[in-house]
Specification:
The complex is a heterodimer of chains A (about 500) and B (about 375).
Chain A lengths: L1 H9 L12 H9 L4 E5 L7 E5 L5 H14 L5 H7 L6 E3 L2 H10 L1 E5 L7 E5 L28 H9 L7 E8 L5 E8 L5 H13 L8 H8 L11 E3 L2 H10 L2 E5 L5 E4 L11 H4 L2 H30 L7 H11 L6 H21 L2 H21 L5 H14 L5 H39 L1 E2 L2 E2 L9 H4 L28 H4 L8
Antiparallel strand pairs in A: 1-2, 2-4, 3-5, 4-5, 6-7, 7-9, 8-10, 9-10, 11-12
Helix pairs in contact in A: 11-15, 11-16, 13-14, 13-15, 13-16
Chain B lengths: L22 H9 L7 H9 L3 H26 L3 H43 L6 H17 L2 H20 L2 H5 L14 H12 L8 H4 L10 H25 L2 H5 L4 H6 L11 H31 L3 H18 L3 H39 L1
Helix pairs in contact in B: 1-6, 1-10, 1-13, 2-8, 3-8, 3-10, 3-15, 4-5, 4-13, 4-14, 4-15, 5-13, 5-14, 6-13, 13-14
Classes of the chains: A alpha+beta (about 500), B mainly alpha (about 375).
């Protein structure tokens, strides 16, 4: 106890990297790096130009700044500011601002070495990947652009889809060391103010030294961070983000992360794919139902196998009995062991496949799926029937359009297996009841996560398990509590025409 | 003498309240529970196969009681505790409220122990009751500790998940002997009323409204839904009883303890036999709201009366329930428990009209003096 107390005391209250207290010491710190340049300029203008070579655009320096300074004599910073043909130049003596901007790639100009006032010219160049096709949330039809690691590019992808002055982008800096730019995007007049405030409040409350990816925020801002269910939807598709913004939701984009977060979200949103909106409504609804069935199958099938074969053998119909008995006759393990071995094998294959380069990964899948599976059956370690069930369950869990929820489904299978082993079908029921209770309790930025099932909202059910035609979706979902809840006037759309008009 | 109204219920924030529509599920799921699995046998004892009339009469009585409950609550604009305090004063009123708390606790105990017995008899004869009750109660605690909204959610899912089981009635109808029901009404009114008394026990559950009334948004508009809920229960009981009546003979039904579960046995599906296992597993969802809601209400009363922390009361009740259900060992004890709960429940229902009359009388008296 005492030791712990001491340990706690030893930490300084606000762990910060040693801050520089003057511009001079800042430059001293920077000079330790090879790529920092701070040299007096020779020529008519007598000044000192400092910058970090690796993050400024050298062409810009040589073409737009140096010619101005070298061609005429400029006496002070104001004069330079007037002559340099660049926007957003700033003169300041605020050390904090100078530090941030120089680290982001500004060129600093001072008249004398001892000056505190500095002129800052933005000249950043950032290396980014080209916008490419979505790889996690691939769709056959529809737009094929995905977010990249640059915040500005990502906002560009959104702005070009939503040319609205009301599209508001607020920016926060998070992370003591990384100072990551985080953009909160919403449509003013549609998005609920309370939701927006909650998001901003939670972002500002985050205390951490680094924000590397948007998934950091998912974990830090969650209403219940102990839940296996993600309470923010992450997507790499700008079209999907646009769609939810129009519904009145809020998007969060983190600089350096190719995934945007949207909230408030619900459990059903994780099972809806972008494709659903590109297909006619009946097809989309059918595929959604298949996906839902797949998820239920994936979670329950193996535990049902365990429950029936361990506790309720009487339930197997006579005709099926022979098949199951003959396939299980040589297996030395009880059903639960058999299932656990196979499930873990599949999880292994999945992990291996995810870590390996794409080309090798495919081979592993085939080797694992066919060779190991067949060998295990032939060796008498698992039964044929179970192999089919497990493989189908694994396949079914891949049908979720959002990767995050796929992980959840992978995990929650195991509690079901254990409860099936414990009390058969009653155990499965109890486990399911627990998860229903858990989902009812969950919230996404203060809005119920299990909506539109509970609280029951018929309006939102139009776009949940099935997707009704666009003409019926005249209102925005209740979940978002949109300030303006009407999408369009349904009366104008549904004016009926008579025959042969 | 006019006492200030007990506040405390007014302080409920909007986000713990539920919409009036959900009262349908609250009322219905609390009424339907473990009783429906075997109530046919008991009502047949008195009124024979005319007992379906008793079910209808029981339903009508429930509608009247529900109307009274709404009147009582509307006049006091609070819950049972504030009604009691208004009428009987702080001390006596508090005592009566605590009796209700124990009654709800008894209800919980009956449901959970009877369900454990069903599981023991039908699926796991060697079930470890202590472990099973512990985990089951833990589940109920998880819901009840989540607050009223969570409990309501469970009620909703209970009704939705329970509906498919209703479709199974189709199988016994295939083997129906409609002539079982004839001649219609050959029992005396006394016999039918005696069966009505028995059947009211299956309708227990509307009295929980006395506690959760302040948790309803716009309570006046919830009336309609509450009555729909009772009506749906009546209909469900009627269908269940009629199906059992036309399947079993009048003598035969006396020898079956749980006619409904036995009916599940004849369900034939190509991929599954012995359907009663599935039925009992699904029954977890039907009885969970019973347990959660009653447990929540039971622990809510001490909080309102003594201002205890509800969580502590809940844990205390958890322990009481756990020990009590572990100690109830055999079929006879459980039957006695059910019997007692039925009797006490009957008096609780009888108490509602009395409360109604006292309150109305006092209101009139106060008006005259004011």
């Amino acid at each position: 106890m005492l030791k712990w107390w001491k340990n706690k005391k030893r930490f300084p209250k606000d762990p910060q990297v040693q801050q520089n207290d003057s511009i001079h010491s800042l430059i001293e710190t920077l000079k330790q790096s090879k790529d920092f340049t701070s040299d007096p300029l020779t020529g008519p203008t007598d000044c000192i130009v400092s910058y970090i070579k690796t993050i400024i655009e050298p062409k810009f320096l040589h073409k737009s700044i140096l010619p101005v300074l070298k061609s005429q004599q400029l006496k002070d910073l104001e004069e330079i500011k007037d002559h340099v043909p660049v926007n957003n130049i700033k003169i300041t003596d605020d050390l904090e601002e100078i530090r941030i901007r120089i680290m982001q790639g500004d060129i600093m100009i001072r008249m004398k070495e001892t000056d505190d006032r500095a002129l800052l010219i933005p000249a950043t160049t950032v290396e980014t990947r080209k916008v490419s096709i979505p790889e996690v949330e691939f769709s056959v039809v529809g737009p094929k652009e995905a977010f990249v690691e640059s915040l500005d590019t990502n906002i560009n992808l959104l702005r070009k889809r939503l040319t609205l002055p009301q599209l508001t982008i607020r920016e926060v800096m998070i992370g003591k060391l990384t100072k990551t730019r985080v953009a909160v995007i919403s449509i003013e007049g549609i998005a609920n103010k309370e939701n927006l405030n909650t998001v901003l409040q939670r972002l500002n409350a985050i205390e951490y030294d680094q924000i590397i990816d948007s998934s950091f925020l998912t974990q830090m801002m969650s209403d219940n961070s102990n839940s296996p269910f993600p309470q923010f939807l992450d997507t790499e598709r700008p079209d999907r983000v646009t769609e939810v913004l129009v519904e009145g939701k809020i998007a969060i984009i983190v600089d350096g992360s190719p995934h945007a977060l949207t909230c408030p979200t619900t459990i059903v949103e994780f099972f809806s794919a972008s494709d659903d909106y590109f297909l006619p409504w009946h097809l989309a609804s059918a595929f959604r139902l298949i996906r839902l069935f797949a998820v239920i199958f994936s979670v329950l099938s193996t535990s049902l196998y365990v429950a029936v074969l361990t506790h309720h053998q009487e339930m197997i119909p006579e005709d099926m009995m022979a098949t199951i008995v003959s396939s299980r006759a040589d297996i030395p393990f009880p059903p639960i062991m058999e299932v656990l071995v196979l499930e873990l094998t599949i999880e292994l294959l999945r992990e291996a496949g995810a870590r390996l380069p794409a080309k090798v990964g495919q081979t592993i899948g085939i080797v694992g799926g066919i060779v190991i599976g067949t060998a295990a059956v032939e060796a008498g370690l698992t039964s044929n029937v179970l192999l089919i069930i497990t493989a189908l369950a694994a396949l079914a869990s891949f049908t979720t359009p959002v990767y995050q929820i796929g992980n959840t489904i992978r995990l929650i299978r195991f509690p079901f297996l254990l409860s099936a082993q414990l009390w058969g079908l009653v155990g499965i029921s109890m486990c399911m009841a627990f998860f229903i209770g858990h989902l009812i309790r969950l919230q996404s930025i203060g809005r119920p996560f299990f909506a539109p099932l509970y609280p029951l909202r018929f309006r939102d059910l139009k776009d949940a398990f099935i997707r009704l035609p666009f003409s019926l979706q005249s209102k925005r979902p209740m979940q978002t509590r949109a300030d303006d809840s009407t999408r369009f006037n349904p009366n104008r759309v549904q004016e009926k025409r008579d025959i042969d008009d | 003498m006019i006492r200030p109204k007990q506040s405390g219920t007014q302080a409920l924030s909007e986000n713990v309240k539920v919409s009036p529509t959900l009262v349908f599920f609250l009322i219905h799921s609390m009424q339907v529970g473990i009783g429906i699995l075997g109530f046919e046998r008991y009502i047949v004892k008195d009124a024979g196969y005319d007992a379906w009339v008793s079910i209808l009469i029981g339903g009508v009585i429930m509608h009247i009681l529900l109307w009274m409950i709404y009147h009582i609550l509307e006049d006091s604009d609070g819950d049972l505790v504030s009604v009691h305090n208004d009428i009987f004063g702080k001390f006596l009123g508090g005592l009566f409220s605590i009796i209700f708390s124990f009654y709800y606790l008894l209800l919980t105990l009956t449901v959970i122990r009877t369900f454990v017995e069903v599981v023991q008899v039908w699926i796991f004869p060697r079930l470890n009751v202590w472990v099973f009750t512990f985990l089951f109660l833990l589940l109920a605690y998880y819901f009840a500790a989540g607050g009223f909204r969570i409990v309501t959610g469970m009620c909703l899912f209970s009704v939705i998940l329970g509906l498919p089981i209703l479709a199974l009635k189709f199988y016994p109808i295939q083997y129906a002997h409609l002539e079982n029901l004839f001649p219609v009404i050959d029992h005396t009114l006394i016999e039918i009323l005696a069966a009505t008394k028995t059947v009211t026990l299956s309708y227990l559950g509307i009295e929980l409204l006395l506690i959760y009334y302040p948790f309803i948004k716009k309570p006046v508009s919830s009336k309609k839904w509450a009555h729909h809920g009772v009506f749906f229960t009546t209909l469900l009981y009627l269908v269940t009883a009629l199906v059992s009546f036309i399947y079993y003979s009048e003598k035969g039904i006396q020898s079956v303890i749980w006619p409904t579960i036995s009916l599940w046995k004849i369900v034939e599906l190509p991929f599954v036999e012995r359907f009663e296992y599935v039925g009992i597993a699904l029954w977890v969802y039907v009885i969970l709201p019973n347990i959660c809601l009653a447990l929540w209400a039971a622990s809510r009363i001490p909080r309102r009366v003594f201002h205890f922390r509800q969580r502590w009361v809940l844990i205390l009740y958890f322990i009481i329930l756990y020990i009590a259900s572990g100690l109830l060992k055999d079929r006879e004890m459980i039957d006695t428990l059910n019997d007692w709960t039925g009797k006490i429940g009957f008096y609780v229902l009888l108490y509602i009209p009395i409360l109604f009359i006292i309150q109305k009388a006092m209101k009139k008296a106060r008006k005259r003096h004011a």
